[in-house]
Amino acid sequence: MNISKSEQLFQRAQSSIPGGVNSPVRAFKSVGGNPIFLKSAKGAYLYDVDGNRYIDYINSWGPMILGHAFAPVVAAIQQKALDSTSFGAPTELEVEMAELVKSMAPNVDLIRMVSSGTEACMSALRLARGFTGRNKFIKFEGCYHGHADSFLVKAGSGVATFNIQTVPGVTGGVSNDTLTCAYNDQDAVRQLFAENKGEIAAIIIEPVAGNMGCILPQEGFVEGLRRICTEEGALLIFDEVMTGFRLAPGGAQERLKVDADLVTYGKVIGAGMPVGAFGGRREIMEKIAPLGAVYQAGTLSGNPLAMVAGYTLLQHLKANPRIYTELEEKGNYLKAGLQRVLEASGTPFVINHMGSMISVHFSDHPVTDFATAASANNALFNKFFHAMLDRGVYLPPSAYESWFLSHALTQEDLDATINAAEESLKEIV
Ligand code: PMP
């Protein structure tokens, strides 16, 4: 595969962009080698600057649930741009967007738009603190909730990939209020509440985790958190930046049948434009300015191009529920195929999967939290990543990331992926 233009661009990028990338997860630092520079994408395929084609399992880290350059979204953005790209004043489209989200997502009385998942989680946490009058909160090791200071403690995604134990610049004053324990460990959560009686504002969780590979909540875990929060007067925040509008029209709340007090969105809600959102029960959301004193704002919040992209995509998803059934079938098919070739290879493995989120861990034990994800053979994953890339399949460049399926994937694409996995395993095991 010729990647000479990518290599040239990466050399050039490093003299003006830190590490040559605008987000660290794009670097191939942990898998080795240099990142591929992309030129365009359509449906399930990415095209790099050298003209190579890849089947995409990153999908911009989640947003492109219907594949790239989905025609109605592209057309809506083009049309909307003619009316100006930003007003900084209210528009009808924002009302329509809020109403559409409310019609799909459970437990959202009021919703505020922001411009990223980071902003959504940061604002939801501030609101939970403002509402309860408590400072501490619980997050789970290996979960990632964006790069706001409070969340960069035992975080997943790039923080785990690059093995950053403490993030310089995050003060002890801030991180002391971040309590952590293992995902799926309800007893540890109870213990933290017992040790910090009346001090914990919220639990924030990825209800299906995607930032330490894909990790599923064990039976009763999220239900248990719901019970504990209710008993302790703390809020349950679902970070649905990955799972929202992906695992079901109503996200993980619908899929797991557990109610959150606050929920954050990103990725799919913006169809690839910079969008995040947080919402929840009216009495909590009414504490946000201008109704309340919990201040939160944004020059570009509710931006018309971002809103029209998200609105068009969500409306399409709402009108076509079969998309979710078909995504489910694609996920099941891929899982079965990967299972077959992995078993044949003789290497120990675990596949974690729900709907259109999936990941392969080269592990001989179940992967249920960050420690078990970290003790898998991630050096083998790194080889697998490159072997797949060489065969035209673009996986996340880290074992600590979920793969995302798009609805644009065809049977042929899935078969090609399974064949590539079979050949890759023969090469690397
Ligand atoms: N929460 C979760 C669960 C995420 O996966 C991410 C991003 N991968 C974020 C929050 C942060 O979103 P953003 O990158 O848009 O700030």
Structure description:
By secondary structure, the chain is of the alpha/beta class. It has two domains: 3-69 and 321-428, Aspartate Aminotransferase, domain 1; 71-319, Type I PLP-dependent aspartate aminotransferase-like (Major domain) (Aspartate Aminotransferase, domain 2). The protein is 39% helix and 14% strand. The chain has 15 helices and 14 strands. A seven-stranded mixed β-sheet has the order 4-10-9-8-7-5-6, sandwiched between helices. The chain has a four-stranded mixed β-sheet with strand order 1-2-3-13. It has a three-stranded antiparallel β-sheet with strand order 11-12-14, covered by helices on one side. The protein is globular and about 55 Å long. It starts with a helix and ends with a helix. The mean pLDDT is 98. 4'-deoxy-4'-aminopyridoxal-5'-phosphate is lined by residues 61, 116-118, 121, 144-146, 157, 206, 210-211, 239, 241-242, 266, 276.
